[in-house]
Design goal:
single chain, 204 residues, mainly alpha, Hypothetical protein af1432, globular
Length: 204
């Protein structure tokens, strides 16, 4: 009987820790981060479909992209953003490494059932249509919003380590010029810094 290690490898996302260069009050792994990004990406799609119903987006497809957006880090590890985007050469080289990591992961699936192509599209999405490019932008925005929320949580825990990161991430989100992201940041992001009593009091 054939055995395949693809899903067991995905389970190892829980061992890859984010924010490795920062002093965290609570460590965050890419498995839980991916859930946060998927929730936010789904929300951004729902917001988009209400703000612009003439160009609907498949929220479940975007959510799938979000769930798998960091899976290659099982192999590459989490490279801090300041290093990843330090210059074009590093960014280009890292993209190539990510592609190779995606291909390595899908090689753990059966070759003859079509699953490899399905998962390669999720792990390393092709940007061959304007709609896919927009979906990718929504996932990127959700990724940045999740990072912003992590900074808010750290500040709420008394850590000053994330203050500059929070400010730069908020600016990056604003610079994306996505009405969906702006709407989320205005209406849904602030309560992440609230206490449980305030969240449940009905006085938001």
């Amino acid at each position: 009987m054939e055995e395949y290690g693809f899903y067991a490898m995905l389970d190892r996302m829980q061992y890859i820790i984010r924010w490795g260069m920062m002093r965290n009050s609570r460590k965050e792994n890419i498995k839980e981060h991916s859930f946060d990004v998927a929730v936010i990406a789904h929300a951004l799609c729902l917001i988009h479909n209400r703000l612009d119903p003439s160009t609907p987006v498949d929220e479940y497809k975007v959510m799938a992209y979000a769930i798998y957006h960091d899976c290659t880090e099982i192999i590459t590890g989490d490279l801090p953003t300041p290093i990843k985007y330090h210059n074009r050469e590093i960014t280009k080289a890292y993209k190539e490494v990510e592609q190779e990591a995606a291909e390595s992961l899908v090689s753990l699936l059966p070759e003859d059932e079509g699953l490899r192509d399905e998962y390669l599209e999720l792990l390393a999405p092709s940007m061959d249509t304007p709609q896919k490019e927009f979906m990718h932008r929504l996932v990127k925005a959700a990724d940045k919003i999740a990072a912003y929320i992590k900074c808010v949580r750290e500040e709420s825990s008394g850590s000053v380590e994330f203050k500059a990161a929070k400010e730069s991430t908020a600016k990056a989100i604003s610079n994306m010029s996505l009405p969906e992201a702006d709407y989320f940041m205005e209406h849904y992001a602030p309560p992440y810094g609230y206490t449980l009593d305030k969240l449940t009091s009905g006085d938001l």
